[in-house]
Specification:
240 residues; alpha+beta; 6-stranded antiparallel barrel; 3 helices; elongated
Length: 240
């Protein structure tokens, strides 16, 4: 009885999922963003601001996440003060060394303290530089996994962002099509969600053929601009 239920469920799932290739030769296509990343923190801190809402757009370099880094900035000021003091001590010892008024050991220790203080200041500056996450490209916020005032640890997902203007059409085509399918080959893609068709062309072909399905990945792009297209949409590609 259990086996029969599993077989029935698998059969229903297979019927629900659209085939990769239609009887008339059309190919199932998925629209995907060329740039889609999950942003996370590199430091443990509390989120102080996330100015872009879900679905909102942003420009490259715009701050997307800002953290409360008052403690890190205090550590930076302390490290900079220690560096200044160590640099002054080294400067004095170098002057005294000209008159043989300081020993080699004291001079070496001053040099070591100056290098150590410089390293501490550099490390503190690096931490402060991670107190804000800037957008790596123009795009939109697809998902917010954290909220303002929430404390996050390094690696915790905060924002999923996508470049909705740079979309790819990914499909698996029969490997025997390689005899005629070339870079630049044109086709038409009918997008299910919009009920509209768009001209497209092949931009790249996969590096290897799947030996089981005898298919190869083909990646196409829409010709021209289509503002209503979004990552995750799907449809059918028709080749002449």
């Amino acid at each position: 009885m259990r086996l029969a239920w599993v077989v029935m469920a698998m059969s229903m799932a297979a019927q629900a999922a659209p085939p990769a290739t239609a009887a008339d030769g059309r190919i199932r296509v998925q629209l995907m963003s060329r740039h889609a990343v999950t942003l996370s923190s590199e430091i443990p801190a509390k989120i102080s601001a996330m100015p872009v809402v879900e679905g909102g757009g942003f420009r490259r370099g715009q701050p997307l996440v800002e953290f409360d880094c008052s403690s890190y900035r205090a550590q930076l000021r302390k490290a900079q003060a220690s560096l200044e003091a160590a640099s002054q001590l080294l400067k004095v010892n170098n002057q005294l060394a000209k008159y043989n008024s300081v020993g080699t050991l004291e001079l070496t220790q001053a040099q070591g303290k100056a290098k150590e203080a410089a390293a501490d200041a550099s490390y503190a500056q690096t931490l402060v530089s991670k107190c804000s996450i800037a957008a790596p490209f123009d795009g939109r916020v697809a998902k917010r996994s954290a909220a303002v005032h929430q404390y996050v640890n390094p690696g915790n997902p905060i924002l999923d962002i996508v470049d909705s203007d740079s979309l790819e059409l990914r499909m698996l085509v029969p490997s025997k099509w390689l005899a005629t399918l070339k870079l630049g080959s044109r086709f038409t893609v009918a997008v299910d969600e919009l009920g509209a068709s768009f001209p497209a062309r092949i931009e790249r072909l996969g590096a290897q053929i799947d030996p089981v399905s005898q298919t190869i990945l083909a990646i196409g792009v829409i010709d021209g601009k289509a503002a209503n297209l979004l990552p995750g949409m799907s449809g059918w590609a028709s080749f002449k």
